[in-house]
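Limitations
The structure tokens in this dataset are predictions for the assembled complex, not deposited experimental models. Users should treat interface geometry with appropriate caution, especially where small molecules or nucleic acid strands are included. An illustrative entry is reproduced here so readers can see what is and is not provided.
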Amino acid sequence: MGNHSDGSPNHSGTVATAGQNEVEKFQDPGLPPHRLRLADTDPKAAKRAERQVALLFGTSVVGTLIFLVAYFAIDLGEGAGIATIRLQNALLGVGTAFAMLGIGTGIVHWAKALMPDHEVSEERHAIRTEDDRQAAVRIVDDIVDETGIKRRPLIRNTLLGAVALAPLPALAIFGDLGPRPDRKLAHTMWAPVDGQLKRLTRDPDGTPIRASDVTLGSAFHVIPEGLNDLHEGKLNEKAKAVVLLMRLDPASLNPSEGREDWGYNGIVAYSKICTHVGCPVALYEQQTHHLLCPCHQSTFDLTQECKVIFGPASRPLPQLPIAVDDEGYLVATSDFKEPVGPSYWERDEHERIINS
Amino acid sequence: MSASSTAKAPAFVATTKAGRVTDFVDARVGGSGILREFGRKVFPDHWSFMFGEVALYSFVILLLSGTFLTFFFDPSMAHTNYDGSYVPLKGVEMSVAYSSSLDISFDVRGGLFMRQVHHWSALLFVASIAVHMLRVFFTGAFRKPREMNWVVGGVLLILAMAAGFTGYSLPDDLLSGNGLRIIDGVMKSIPVIGTYASFFFFGGEFPGYAVIGRLYMLHILLVPALILLMIVLHLFMVVVHKHTQYPGPGRNDGNVVGYPLGPVYAAKAGGFFFIVFGVIALMAAFFTINPIWNYGPYDPSPVSAGTQPDWYIGFVDGALRLMPGVIGDFHFEYVIFGYTLSLNVLLPALVPAGILFTVMFMYPWIESWITKDNREHHVLDRPRNAPTRTAIGVAGFVWYCVMWAAAGSDLIATHFYVSLNDVTYWLRALFFIGPIIAFIVAKRVALALQRKDREIALHGRETGRIVRLPHGEFIEVHAPLDEYKRYKLVGFESPAPLPAVPNDHGIVTRKEKQRAFLSKWFFEDRVAPATPAELEAAHGHHAHPAVEAAEESKSLSH
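Predicted assembly:
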């Protein structure tokens, strides 16, 4: 790095430099002379400050009273609307604020105006003395020496091994924090039960949807039939099974090979769970046929089988194959053909198992 | 022994009431040594030293308001049907946790106020820690002997964020539930153990029935206990080191200049607690924070647009938003040995935060390695007097702010009527070039301010008084500074680059060469403090002795 051994700054033409370490410096003039405050010289001003402090403390008393009145006088019983709660909240806050600010500003004003304001200089003491330092180092050396740990590597190494392994039970004992994942993430409620195909129903009331109800350009938030009857684990199932149903002009859909019959008459269903980190992809732009996730703005194009066209997601939304049953209701012909939601380590393995 | 000695010597009798009380306590617990040490201990005074106090006080307020909330909150995720007094949600199925949060808001008198106090002080707690750390960084207060206290402060920042996040999720409303959903997605992106981590955290599949109870335990026991422990360590080290002070006349590395603890400093600091409390109470009174009743219970299907995390999580969320999932045909999620690796989630969630915190924790040692400065520092640097450090800090700050702004990219787009995609593209660009621009600008500004200081020290301050000289020239009268003000402008060190030096074997190691290179980068551009000789030279071209020049410096100069 060049020849800067003199450390001189003249390499830099941009900056005015003058003076080196050897050059004489300004002497520290010491603490500036103390300036008296008004209250130090004028007894009237001191008296005034005293009254101001008292007044501030008095304000605090008023604040405490406001709080107590607001707490006891305002009834939150039946019939109390949000306006009552808002009023009580505001008054409790104002009361507390006065009570606290009165004390706080009063004390600070007292300190600043009336208490001695001489700045004092105090010596800093070294954190440790040289004596202590040497003694401490010697003691540590002696201790280490007396254990003989350096001379007895067998002891040292077995101890290290034992200490390294000892925390394992402490980790293992947390093994029951949760069940093994197994393949739970690979399946959803949409899988037909005993050959019975699941109907698509409206979220949240669970009424089935007729294909004829789905007009061109409309969108439905969909849950599987029977979800609302679940008691245990309803949200767990819902978190995987929610679907968006939309109807487009069939000509604008470009189904890939093998997926031509996954829709019905321009009606298609896609998982609503973002493939990024799992937020619901709840925004449908009817004109552009884009689906937008409001959490991180991943954008999916319906006309390209929900391919990612913008944002942090990397994978298309999984499509739910649908058809119409004898009564004209939309049904899922099978479960999703891939795991829904955010990616996980075993995801690809699960996808292969589903499709095999 | 002490009994016998006091019996012999004429006993000291306290004359005042306060003195007698002190003596009574002292005779039983022996605190006189402590009081003697601390009763008049000197603390330097500066407004920028109060950020740490704000953090401490908001933590106290958090403990007070949080304790109140625990009496009414029930962290159960069991299903229930709401039967409280908030009419729009009557009969709605929800978790007990959400229902009890609503009860706190609507059916417990003062409950809403305490919730608001708790949430506002949590936001203030993290904010004041962050600002306090910026102050410590930019003034060089982290230098020896305070490096370890800087690390403890960094740990406190992380713990404060952890406390905030665990608490944010407790009401189990729609907004916080989506926050947990994002955490779930991030966890699942961890290679090998991610799925297990998520299942263990949630006690099964997301959202499960366990997570609120677990977060509750973390939020009210483990994290606050750790915070308390760290605060004790932090303050203990402050006492050991004594406080730093800003440079100025009469202040040096060997002394502490300020007010004695009792009464002035204690009164100001104690009074300040009530002021912080009062301000938080005002915010809680008038500014709604986290109106969970508007969001509804958590449900994996709906989501509200324009949702925001609490501010301190924003930078991670923003990084998640900025990362493209696909560039051209390259997908950041790919399959490796039959397993899925989701770099589009993993990288932004871990890398920027990892870089920020790693550099932050290591910075004291990085700087002292470059500068070879192993001295103790108790006098702070004015940020302008350490231009490169200041520039590094500003660059990091801007980087953080770009990510933070990205967490509001949708709101920026809707409020300013610009395209959401363009906002993201710009922020992606700023993510890379923002810190570089910030570094250059900050460094130049610091150097310019230093030069301004030099000029003021040498030529005095502008008075705004224009004088016409006999021959017609107009000049502005500059008033010289008094020696105290001048010393503030000239009393600093301006280290020069340290070239590489050979080690004991006479070899200039590669590491040493790198150090010398960084040293040059650090100190190459520098402004030296003005010297008495320069001041003399500046005061006219007549050769006065230095002393006289200083005294006469009231003349017209320029």
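Some entries come with short summary sentences. For this one: The domain at 47-246+258-302 of chain B is CATH 1.20.810.10 (Cytochrome Bc1 Complex; Chain C).
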